[in-house]
Amino acid sequence: MIAVFRSLIVDTFRQSLASRIFWVMLAVSGLCTLFCLSVGFINVPVKAGEGLPQADPLADPVKAEAAGLDVFGGEITYGFGVIRMQVDRDRQNAVQFILAVLAGLVAGSLGLLLTLVWTAGFFPSFLEPSAASVLLAKPIHRWQLLLGKFVGLLVFVALHAAVFVLGTWLALGVKSGVWVPAYLWCVPMLVLQFAVFASVSVLLAVVTRSTVVCVFGSILFWMVCWAINYGRHKVYAVPELRAAVSVQMVNAGYWVMPKPVDFGMLFFDAIGAHNYFAEAVDLKPIRQEEKATKQTWQRPTLALVTSLLFSLGILGLAMYQFRHTDY
Question: Is 84 inside any structural domain?
Fold first, then answer.
């Protein structure tokens, strides 16, 4: 099985090179890394103490110094000095803001959807009769072929996620002198989310062998899951909604289906992005309830586990369908 998986992983990379997807994703990572290298800081302290932003009308340097306060602020340059922007935060906060934006591209909804679209054609072409018939002639089980290809796809996505994250993290860290290790959680978060929704794309590929169906089917499924996940939290956040709907049915849909909003929420908390961006739904009531019942770790952990279990179930269904498909 190890030899089969190794061969299918190599085959996935060959397929990505032939379709130019490998170079497209590498180019995106390179451009984002170059953007981070182009960032500069002028008179922006690494970490400001207690003080006032430079734009504050009360931030008189003489009075602030007499009161023992710092007046912090400066400029951030982008494009190697082409674009200049005034900032009213220290360098630590400025870097965290930039990384939060980049994290939304790779570990958030945009990064996930783009990755699903770019890789949607891998399985339909792999399952074409002209290609599959050669593999099916080998003395190996069909489920090994499908699982091996799925593992190859995850390795491919993990590699490009690592290139993106490590490249931007190192570039911005070198330029600013500020290092945010929590940003590295982008890699496993993207791979986990991708594994959940790519399993649906695999099932669609086995049934239809159509790239178009895989693209639109996986995106539509993500939208449905997002709506269910968002709706459940909205019901808990708005008492009027909780009284108007069946909470049991809302919770049933929430626990059965994957939870893209929760994935984003976990990563949101990990990198402290809530200091700069508003969340899609106010989760304060849910967090307060979890804290009161001392279950702050249980719901996020169960959300991840149940999402992965759903993915395994869909992948098992795809293997069963592939096993009974005639070629």
Answer: no
Residue 226 within a domain: yes
The amino acid present at 135, given as its one-letter code, is L
DSSP 239: H
Q: Which amino acid is at 169?
A: W
Rounded to whole angstroms, how far apart are CA atoms 147 and 5? 8
The residue type found at 298 is Q
Buried b (16+ CB within 10 A) or exposed e, 6-23: eebbebbeebbeeeebbe
pLDDT tens track, the chain, 327 positions: 788 889 889 989 999 999 899 999 999 999 999 999 999 988 777 765 545 555 554 455 555 555 555 555 678 888 888 888 877 777 888 888 888 888 877 767 788 888 999 999 899 888 887 776 666 666 678 888 899 999 999 999 999 999 999 999 999 999 988 898 988 988 988 899 999 999 999 999 999 999 999 999 999 999 999 999 888 888 877 777 766 777 788 888 888 999 888 887 777 776 766 666 666 556 666 666 666 655 554 567 788 889 999 999 999 999 999 888 876
Question: Which two structure tokens, joined as six digits, stand for 236?
Answer: 């808990």
Tell me the three state secondary structure of residue 106.
Answer: helix
| Residues 6+ positions from 266 with CB-CB distance below 8 Å | 189, 300, 303, 304
Q: Is residue 235 included in any domain, yes or no? A: yes
Render 121-189 in DSSP notation, one character per residue. THHHHHTSHHHHHHHHTSSS-HHHHHHHHHHHHHHHHHHHHHHHHHHHHHHHHHHHS---GGGGGHHHH
Q: Note down the domain range covering 297.
A: 2-47+90-323
- 147 — phi, psi (to 5°)? -65, -40
Of 11, 319, 325, 317, give the one whose Cα is nearest residue 143.
319
Model-level pTM greater than 0.70? yes
DSSP 51: E
Number of domains composing the chain: 1
